[in-house]
Design brief:
Elements lengths: L2 E5 L2 E4 L8 H13 L4 E5 L8 E9 L7 E3 L3 E7 L1 E7 L5 E8 L8 E4 L4 E6 L3 E9 L7 E3 L9 H25 L1
Parallel strand pairs: 2-3
Antiparallel strand pairs: 1-2, 3-4, 4-11, 5-12, 6-9, 6-11, 7-8, 7-10
């Protein structure tokens, strides 16, 4: 498959028919390992103006996804690996944790998030690869980052935030077990 790199780790296909196989998934993993953000994607849509955006995304376990929401619905379909999809409220409190996995029998393989759902992903395997779909066209204003979570470029603060989030997830799980 012929790809063009639009920005670091972001590739678009130059064909009308896009198919992704094992060779492409290995390429994504290789590119994620080279990328400063520890992720890479192949965009199946031809450009940012397309009305439907479909991407195959690979995240490494060291990837930090700043909690955010979109003003559009999105869906994720697991291809390989395991992650926790953490849903948060406006204050940053954990409201739900969904295990997404191709490896664990009781985990979800697909999830659809309504517009306005604050979320982040925590990769639990060496890498996590998924197919994401959302409505286009792409507009940076359609994504709002949580003000209480550090930006990706603030690596030390992001690492500290992730540690706090891990504790919050454990506490959420304890509370949830106590409620049942």
């Amino acid at each position: 498959m012929e790809l063009r790199e639009e920005s670091p780790g972001v590739y678009y296909c130059n064909h009308a028919v896009v198919s992704v196989g094992d060779r492409d998934l290995a390429f994504l993993l290789q590119e994620a390992r080279k990328n400063d953000k520890h992720r890479a994607r192949i965009c199946a849509h031809p450009d940012v103006g397309d009305p439907v955006h479909e991407m195959v995304i690979c995240l490494l376990d060291t990837c930090y996804i700043r909690p955010h929401l979109h003003h559009k619905a999105e869906s994720l379909h697991v291809l390989a690996g395991t992650c926790e999809l953490v849903l948060l409220d406006a204050e940053g409190d954990v409201v739900n944790v969904l295990c997404l996995s191709s490896e664990l029998p009781d985990a979800a393989r697909y999830v659809r998030l309504a517009a306005g759902t604050i979320h982040t992903l925590l990769v639990r395997s060496e890498h996590f690869t998924f197919h994401e779909t959302t409505r286009g066209p792409f507009d940076r204003q359609d994504t709002e980052f949580a003000g209480w979570a550090p930006a990706e470029a603030e690596r030390d603060a992001a690492g500290s935030y992730r540690e706090l989030l891990e504790v919050a997830i454990v506490n959420f799980a304890k509370t949830r077990r106590g409620a049942s």
